[in-house]
Write a structure and sequence with these properties.
CATH class of the largest domain: Mainly Beta
Protein name: CUB domain-containing protein
Number of domains: 3
Mean pLDDT: 83
Keywords: Disulfide bond, Membrane, Signal, Transmembrane, Transmembrane helix
CATH architecture of the largest domain: Sandwich
InterPro entries: CUB_dom (IPR000859), LDL_receptor-like_sf (IPR036055), LDLR_class-A_CS (IPR023415), LDrepeatLR_classA_rpt (IPR002172), LRAD2/Mig-13-like (IPR042333), Sperma_CUB_dom_sf (IPR035914)
CATH superfamily of the largest domain: Spermadhesin, CUB domain
Number of strands: 31
Strand content: 25-35%
Length: 570
Amino acid sequence: MLSLIVLLLISTLVECQYNDICGLHHGKKFFLEHGESGSVVADFKDNVVETNASSTYSRCKVEFVTCSSCIIEIQFRYLNISRNCGRSPVIDTCGCDYVWIYEPHIDDTSGEQFCGRFMKSNTSELTYVSQTRNVAITFVYNNEYGHAFTLDYFTKRNRVAVTGYPTLSNMNNASQYIASAFFPQLYPIDLAVEYVITCVSVEPCRISLLFTDFLVDDSSIMEFFDWNGQRMYVMSGNTFRPPVIISNGPSMTIKFYANGGSDYGFKASYSFILGHMDDLAFKPNIGCGGYVNNLGGGITMMNMVEDGTKFYDCVWIIKPPEVYFHRKTHLYVKVATFLDFAGTTELTIRQGLTSNQPYVEVLKYPMAHYVSPRQKEHVVPITQGFYVRLRGVFTPQTRLAIVYAAFNYKDCFGGSDFLCENMRCIPILLNCDGFDHCGDNSDESNNCSQDPKDHREYSKIPNFLFPKIEPYSDLTTATFVFLTCSFGLIGVILAMALLLYRVNVRARHQRQIQDHIETIHAILEESVGDVEEEIIVPDDPPDYEPPPDYNELVKIKYYKNLAEVKLQEK
């Protein structure tokens, strides 16, 4: 019985420590599973936070991390924090004491302050819903409260559901968008999110999805599923802009996986197609645009249509590669021609790389006819770039020209740069190309017709497509040079190794021949030595029979003559 009471006391103490943000779990990080929940309070019963000597404010903090495909929802049950801290009777923002809830990797954008007096009821809620898996809660206070706040948290699936109720009289809204977490901030490398777009209508309904931004890392992927669960497309970051996607039913599911990569993210507008409306009205030609990453030139669109009209939706992102940042300091864009469109056409230029950046110019047709005296030049630091979008209807007479160039005001190199009369240094290739890149038209003088490098005819040729691979052109060239040099070095090493091998073989062969010659010479020397020894030291004379004496020779001679006489007588 005593052990049970002790266990209950310990569990109560642990629960109290876990729930109190200024208690023993202050500054800790807790990992939560899908569906897990809990609560956090600030009642100063077990306060272990010491006041910072350099500041009059104290801070209590706790952080929660859940699964990569989950988010955390926080609901205040009770809140009693002074909003004005006795300074002003009316104030819209929190004063000195507040609860700051944010997501650590993008705290400035995601952060939200909570203060004042609130008590949860059936008609009111005070809620914070994260867009990523990581949430931090910080309590900043100057005065101690008996009970500052109580909040509940629970994890759930990272699923964004949007529902539309279109009618034939009110079908679409221009602000219908889905986007990555805190776009255009960098999305976390472990982000996994699902979007479900649903259409509720008595008429047959379909969904059209058009991307305005797709700055996604190459390792990240996006999947598109039809209303029946069938996968329609799979896209990765190696695509500049996905095609227009139209479902076959009243819903569409989009799944995005960061897969260890991070970039600015994506943004897409969705529309509802009721009944048997023509898809062409919701499916413009997006086979234009791209990354414009050279040091200057012109975007031109003319002779795009032979007969009739064609609807275009083009996006260009103008920004030179970082390898040129040490050579050029500024980037400018100017619309030189904007004429003869059909229907409503709009051209927007934004300072930055996404559609969320501020406008610098908006041109509309037929409300404004663009003529030369109204041309505006927009200059930004080269690191910012421009986002240009054209959405309009083309005819055979339509003309569009957008001029851009990177320049600087010093270090103008004679061999690679052209010095304008306004003291700008632009790449020499932009001289006499039919466009005013200097801003004062000094690069298009009357002498261009006599210049052997005159290429003003390029300004009359459509140049509107900039493939995705172009941002890596310098990298590709460097890679090709590196591989060529590597293979050349490997070839030289192999040739030297082969040469050394052959020299070694030849030397070994020569040594073998020399060894054979020395062996033969030694054998010959041994043979000559044996002959000399035979001549110098003769053998003992052989044994001979002694010759007959004289009497015997006389007898032999006598018998021989006698035999010859008898032979003659016969």
